[in-house]
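Help!! Second protein's tokens look totally different from the first
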Amino acid sequence: MQAGFVYLDEAVPHLKWDAKYATADNFTGRPVDGYRANRVVGTVQLAHALRDVASRAKDDGLGLFVWDAYRPQRAVKRFVDWVSEPDGMSTKAAHYPNVDRARMIELGYIAARSGHSRGSTVDLTLYRLDTGLLLEMGGDFDLMDARSCHGAKGIAHEAEQNRAYLKNLMGSCGFSAYENEWWHYRLENEPYPDTYFDFPIE
């Protein structure tokens, strides 16, 4: 493990996870370069902040469910390469039903550099501690669509409330939201603001 980083599933109480990019269940349709194990990793500072989030969520009977945090730079490069490959369409319905794959970089869905590679950005949601069920958020992780934006039109009231709860919760613990993805949060006081790491997750 890179110095200054930890496994979030070991560091944060009641945290559940499914590292989608370590599996074929993601928008590329196959495991992504750099993800050699289904684990979630982040900086020590990210883990400390998420422990605070988890503690506050527990008071409302909720826990954290994480899909991604630290992302190796080689994985980001894989995403960029994927955009220009022939579209097999197998993941389009689930992940980009209304977007032309070739325009994903232009539209800002994929970038050559990601805050995830600095180790203090996280993709997450909430689950109920009593049932283990994820809260309804009006759209799945990595849905590249206007429905994923904060304040999106046409999502159910329950999902609106849950998104707002998560945003307020994360904000109270030092995180900034990314307006185009309800699941994406960056630690404002991140420890490596100019470093893009590329060690694999093992």
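Here's the second one for comparison:
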Amino acid sequence: MVITRKIGAVVASAVLSIGMFSSITSASTIGNGQPEKTRIQLAAAENLYTKEDLIKKFRKAFPNQFDFLAVGDFQMNSAHIYPDDETVRYDLYFTKNVNGKRLFGSVGFIGNNMEIENFYY
């Protein structure tokens, strides 16, 4: 009986040790992943474009595809740049519930011509 308890304690200790090790390893980052770029947010006074300007540009790029979105469905981040690239970027997000499903997306604009850099829907 005493031997069974000692073996049980050793097994339980080993299981707990492995459990702690696996949680530490799963929290580590992937070695070949790209480090995240640091964004520098510009002051609101430096914003050349408004939310309405970005919505117009968005609707021009995707005519008749997102007519169900109202101005209130959009949110805009202030302008930002990256330390290694001084090009000004703007992000526009949208969210709306349609037929019980949540639709969302984002579009990133870049440069003076406000070209689309990225789009997600």
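Reply: Different proteins will give different token patterns, so don't panic. The chain has a mean pLDDT of 75.
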